[in-house]
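2 proteins. here.
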Amino acid sequence: MRGKLMFLTGLAAGFVLGSRAGREKYEEIRSTAQKAWQHPTVQEAAGVAQAQANKLYTEGKDKLQSSKLGEKLSTNGHDTTDELTAPSVTGTKSTGTSY
């Protein structure tokens, strides 16, 4: 019984010490990543990528609507324009707000 108690005490102490060290490293990594994300070059690239994704999405939606499947969906009472909305990329604003 005493061995189990010593093991649990050691486990708890290791957990507490490891958590503190892990949290500090996590905060360091998080702040570095946040600085990199807020860099103007990264924000510009994210904006370009989002614009390209929106363009591809719109082209795909138009192709679907003009296809036989799109026509079939619209004749069955499904309006494909209501079901298909452009996706948004979160976190691309350079306001300093983390998402």
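next one coming up
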Amino acid sequence: MSTITTQQMRFWSPEVRELEPYVPGEQPKIQNLLKLNTNENPYPPSPKVVEAVQAVLENSADVLRLYPDPDASALKQAIAAQQNVDASNVFVGNGSDEVLAHIFKAFFVQEQPLLYPDITYSFYPVYSQFFGVKTKILPLNDDFEIVVDDYKQANGGIIITNPNAPTSIALGLSAIEELLQSNPDSVVVIDEAYVDFGAESAVSLVEKYENLVVCQTTSKSRSLAGLRVGFAIAQPHLIAALEAVKNSFNSYPMDRFAIAAAVASFEDQAYFETQCKKVIDSREKLVADLEAIGFKVLPSKANFIFASLPNKDAGELAAELREHGIIVRYFNKPRINQYLRITIGTDEQNQRLVDTLKSDILA
């Protein structure tokens, strides 16, 4: 993209000129590349997903000229059945990032500041700026853990990624309950993009707490990153606020392919559980292999790990891995600039990473 001049930017809204957009993980097009930088699932979605998409294609002459169901009712029903809630507790959107955008607009534009950790999903400060949300950033402790007591103060909402990103550390349900009980007049959002890889979901608390919103995605554990399907679970009065925002922005966010594919995925629970277990088992082996060659790895409940190598600069290590055709995520930010976020691949992919480190970089 060519450089935009200040003169050209005069056509932009003043707020847009000040935006600092989210920077997604790199999606390079390089032969024989091992891509461990964006937390994508290394395994394909359920075969039933492919069948569902093919069925839409076969009927495309009849259905693609028509708008999809604006409520995505079939998808809400499928999510509700899998999550053991009522369909009235479910909101769906075009990826969890869109769901989060609606959450910020619906609940966090308040007089008091939104609270979230200093090390967290980097879309939160972007949405805060975009929607004019006041914020107060609270530091994780020296072990990169959330300190629940820090959130017992006046606020206009709380949002926490659990397991956290990029640290991979999970907060237990008792700590989440403590957050909810300490903030009965604020909406508490638990962003569970990675929860299916070993953490405890807060969905079980939704019926008990009227201020809880749980946000999840199909991009990670269900291998549907390319179709963009996210959802939130909460009590109906909170879902109604999200629907109001959605219908004021885009009343048809879910296309027919995404709805059909996601429904099929939620209906194939056995495949879902098997694939999650594969990732978890591969994660534990990779952690052991990296620790054996000197890495420090934070305790992970996600489909990625957060690791550092003492006496080796993380930025330099990421660059050397890239030279060998392996891409990991490096964040050049305070407190975490000596760590790499490494997506869990297949056992074969993980072994390539370990072998490259042992034979080509650390030898």
